[in-house]
């Protein structure tokens, strides 16, 4: 190996040059002695690496050498790999995790993180997962009031700056949401034709945004939990500014943040179509578009400022409730989820009828969500609803309590539920269910708590770049 070379001798591979003549054979031997994988032209190496069977294998090539690490970090390489995956219509896989990093679908990606959880828990710290965006996870150290953004595929982690902690009202912590701009997206590219024709050629290109922005939002509790509120105080962290800002944001249609008998807003926000959504226990949704907040110039760099962000507001999506025909209704619960980018409100209905459990799913199209955001709200009605019968009589008699665990990110027809039989003092059992056929199967794992989907794009998302504010108060 030549001095100063960054090549790894353990992976060097000879590349023979085939020929039929004896002179050619001797030449190929001489070439083989001096030609190795590092001598492949970069353009050819890009094409080879981009065709490896999985992104994990490609990502490991970063550690082969400095030159390979530089090559696979280049935007051209990433764009080429993404374009090939797009052409091949490669499905984007995913998994489901809970707040402690337990996985419902085994990928072992969070094994290292769970060990970190356990280690920190022994030191008296409690770290939980709050929200996801593709393969990025927002974590909170509750004991210290600190936030982190973590990628389990690359094991990259970035700390958010400290935040002014508000007091917890009624024993509840603030509602939190996490959203990012796309790391890459497909765009139309119009190229001028060099020929005599003055027509323009349209084509698709993959655009990489290494400086994509992310936002973390905290909705602070109003003083009166049963009052119809027309504005909410929020704290927003922006990666492009590098600080938390506190603002009053209007909610023209009004919303009761938490009523004893009416609703309780979920602490966990879900990102879809550039917006954040929180659901209430009665099915209504509270929406916010943090990526639409305008960046304002300021000479301060405190954890919170009095400068409000203009140009946007909360909006409310009301669920049109139909009178339930079931007189023997046992319970009805609402869950919010994002399934392959689509926002869905899921309702489970339990009754004493042998038909067991029904699952209703409301879904709004992207255009409808955008229109509601502009108009300040809208309605979820019967046209958005599909209903499935999930439970047969056999499972019904074993059922005492049901918890919806989410849809399978790798199978549109499958969902997961957790059943608990308190009469026989049994531990919760997780089942996989086909919503169309009603077929059930018991899973080996026991999974409880908030279900969050983690998707694995064709190329890992780097943790966001956090700007450092240089101003002082």
From TrEMBL:
Pfam families to which the protein is assigned, alphabetical: F-box-like (PF12937)
Region of interest (Disordered), residue spans: 1-27
InterPro entries: At3g26010-like, F-box-like_dom_sf, F-box_dom
Domain F-box: 38-76
UniProt-recorded name of the protein: Putative F-box domain-containing protein
Organism listed in the record: Rosa chinensis
């Amino acid at each position: 190996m030549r001095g100063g070379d960054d090549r790894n001798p353990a992976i060097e591979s000879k590349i023979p040059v085939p020929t039929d003549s004896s002179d050619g054979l001797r030449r190929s031997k001489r070439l083989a002695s001096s030609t190795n994988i590092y001598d492949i032209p970069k353009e050819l190496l890009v094409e080879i690496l981009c065709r490896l069977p999985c992104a994990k294998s490609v990502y490991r090539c970063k550690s082969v050498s400095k030159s390979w690490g530089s090559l696979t970090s280049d935007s051209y390489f990433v764009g080429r790999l993404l374009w090939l995956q797009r052409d091949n219509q490669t499905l984007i896989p995913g998994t489901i995790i809970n707040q402690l990093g337990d996985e419902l679908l085994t990928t072992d990606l969070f094994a290292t993180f769970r060990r970190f959880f356990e280690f920190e828990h022994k030191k008296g710290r409690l770290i939980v997962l709050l929200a996801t965006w593709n393969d990025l996870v927002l974590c909170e150290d509750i004991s210290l009031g600190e936030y982190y953004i973590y990628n389990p595929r690359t094991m990259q982690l970035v700390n958010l700056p400290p935040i002014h902690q508000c007091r917890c009202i009624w024993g509840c912590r603030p509602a939190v949401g996490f959203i990012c701009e796309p790391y890459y997206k497909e765009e139309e590219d119009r190229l001028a034709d060099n020929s005599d024709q003055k027509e323009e050629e349209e084509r698709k290109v993959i655009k990489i945004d290494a400086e994509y922005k992310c936002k973390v939002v905290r909705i602070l509790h109003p003083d009166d939990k049963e009052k119809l509120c027309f504005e909410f105080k929020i704290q927003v962290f922006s990666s492009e500014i590098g600080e938390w800002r506190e603002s009053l944001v209007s909610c023209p249609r009004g919303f009761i943040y938490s009523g004893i008998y009416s609703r309780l807003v979920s602490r966990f926000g879900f990102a879809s179509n550039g917006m954040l959504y929180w659901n209430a226990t009665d099915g209504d949704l509270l929406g916010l578009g943090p990526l639409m907040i305008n960046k304002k110039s300021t000479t301060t760099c405190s954890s919170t400022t009095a400068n409000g962000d203009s140009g946007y507001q909360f909006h409310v999506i009301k669920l049109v409730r139909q009178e339930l025909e079931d007189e023997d209704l046992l319970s009805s619960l609402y869950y919010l989820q994002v399934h392959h980018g689509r926002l869905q409100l899921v309702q489970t209905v339990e009754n004493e009828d042998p038909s067991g459990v029904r699952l209703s799913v409301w879904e709004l199209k992207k255009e409808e969500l955008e229109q509601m955001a502009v108009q300040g709200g809208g309605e979820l009605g019967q046209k958005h609803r599909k209903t499935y019968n999930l439970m047969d009589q056999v499972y019904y008699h074993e059922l005492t309590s049901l918890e919806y665990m989410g849809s399978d990110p790798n199978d549109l027809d499958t969902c997961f539920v957790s059943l608990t039989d308190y009469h026989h003092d049994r531990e919760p059992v997780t089942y996989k269910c086909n919503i169309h056929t009603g077929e059930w199967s018991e899973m080996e794992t026991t999974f409880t708590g908030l279900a969050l989907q983690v998707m694995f794009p064709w190329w890992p998302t780097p943790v966001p770049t956090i700007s450092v504010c240089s101003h002082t108060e």
